[in-house]
Design goal:
The chain folds into two domains: 4-125, Aminotransferase class 4, branched-chain amino acid transferase, N-terminal domain (D-amino Acid Aminotransferase, Chain A, domain 1, 2-Layer Sandwich); 137-289, D-amino Acid Aminotransferase, Chain A, domain 2 (Alpha-Beta Barrel), CATH 3.20.10. Helix content is 25%, strand content 29%. It is built from seven helices and 17 strands. The strands form two sheets. Strands 8, 9, 10, 11, 12, 13, 14, 15 and 16 form a nine-stranded mixed β-sheet that branches. Strand 4 (40-45) and strand 5 form a beta hairpin. Helix 2 packs across helix 3. 41% of the residues are buried.
C-alpha cells in the first residue's frame, strides 16, 4: 500500500493528493464537530473489486446531512461514481471508504448558516478493525450513556455525535478491555461506540430495537436479512443489561467491525465459547461481500 500522503482523494469534484489538501485550524467542522461522514468497504471478488451496499451508504450520508440541515450539491449517483473512480485510481482491493461532508470555511461562531459546504472522499486499504477479531474481544459496559434523540440524533453519522463514543472507548481501554457496550438513558442496551450488537439466546438472534437510540446500521440490516436464509429468527426489542451476561453468544457488527465475536462482558465469560451461530453468520456474511452468494450479488457495486 502507498503511504497515505501519496493516496489520491476526491474533493469537490477534483482529484488531489492526500498530502496536498489542507484544512485550516478554524474550520467550522474541525472546531465544532459539524461534519457528516460514512464508512464503506470494498472487497476483492472473483469478478473484480466490489463495494458493499454502496447505494444504501450514500443514502444514509445524504439523510444524515438532511437531519443536520446541511445542503449538498451532489446527487447520490455522482457520489457513487466518485467512490468508484477513487478506488480505481488508488488501485485498491479490500478498502475502507470515508466520504465526509463539512463546512469548508474558517470563522469563529456556532451558526453555520450560509457557509460553504464541501464533500471529500478518502479511500485506503483496510483489513480487520479489531486485532482480536477472529478470537473475539473483551468488553465492558460503559458508565457513559448513549446519546438520545432529545439531545442529538443518533441515527445521523455526525462527527460531533462520536465524542460520546470516544469517551466510552477510552473508558474500555483504561479498564483493560477491547471495546465498550453502551446503555441508553433509560438503562437499556443500545450499541457499541461504533458497532451494533446482537445476542444469541438458544436458536434466536436478539438485537436492540431502533427506539434504543441506535444507529440504524447497514451491516445490522444485512444480518437481519440473511438470518432468514440460515433459519435463524431475529427479534428486535429492548434489551436489559443483564441479558449480556446470560447470552449464549454475543457479537458486534458494523462496516469496519464486520462480524466480531464478544467473549466477555465485565469479565463475565460468554457461555458458548465455540460460538456456532456467530461463526455461521460471519462465514455467510463474508461469502456475500466476496460475491460468492448469487442471491445477494445485487448488494455489490462492481468498480470495473
Amino acid at each position: 500500500m502507498q503511504a497515505l500522503e501519496e493516496e489520491y482523494i476526491w474533493i469537490d469534484n477534483e482529484i488531489k493528493r492526500y498530502s496536498d489538501y489542507k484544512v485550516g485550524l478554524l474550520n467550522h467542522s474541525l472546531q465544532y464537530g459539524s461534519g457528516i461522514f460514512e464508512g464503506i468497504r470494498s472487497y476483492a471478488t472473483e469478478d473484480g473489486v466490489a463495494v458493499f451496499r454502496l447505494g444504501e451508504h450514500i443514502e444514509r450520508l445524504i439523510n444524515s446531512a438532511r437531519i443536520y440541515h446541511i445542503n449538498i450539491s451532489y446527487t447520490k449517483e455522482q457520489i457513487e461514481a466518485a467512490v468508484k473512480d477513487l478506488i480505481r485510481l488508488n488501485k485498491l482491493n479490500d478498502s475502507y471508504i470515508r466520504p465526509f461532508i463539512f463546512y469548508n470555511s474558517e470563522s469563529i461562531g456556532l451558526n453555520p448558516y450560509g457557509k460553504k459546504v464541501s464533500l471529500a472522499i478518502v479511500a485506503i486499504e483496510m483489513g480487520s478493525y479489531f486485532k482480536n477479531k477472529d478470537s473475539g474481544i473483551r468488553c465492558i459496559v460503559s458508565s457513559w450513556r448513549r446519546i438520545d434523540n432529545s439531545i442529538l440524533p443518533p441515527m445521523a453519522k455526525a462527527s460531533g455525535n462520536y465524542i460520546n463514543s470516544i469517551l466510552a472507548s477510552l473508558e474500555a481501554h483504561y479498564r483493560g478491555a477491547d471495546e465498550a457496550v453502551m446503555l441508553n438513558s433509560r438503562g437499556y442496551v443500545s450499541e457499541g461506540p461504533g458497532e451494533n450488537i446482537f445476542l444469541v439466546k438458544g436458536d434466536k438472534l436478539i438485537t436492540p430495537s431502533l427506539d434504543s437510540n441506535i444507529l440504524e446500521g447497514i451491516t445490522r440490516d444485512t444480518i437481519i436479512k440473511i438470518a432468514k436464509d440460515l433459519d435463524i429468527e431475529v427479534i428486535e426489542r429492548v434489551v436489559n443489561r443483564e441479558e449480556l451476561y446470560t447470552a449464549d453468544e454475543l457479537f458486534f457488527c458494523g462496516t469496519a467491525a464486520e462480524i466480531t465475536p464478544i467473549i466477555s462482558v465485565d469479565d463475565i465469560e460468554i457461555k458458548n465459547k465455540d460460538m456456532p451461530i456467530t461463526k455461521k453468520i460471519s462465514k455467510y456474511y463474508s461469502d456475500i461481500v466476496r460475491g460468492k452468494v448469487e442471491k445477494y450479488k445485487s448488494m455489490l457495486t462492481y468498480v470495473g
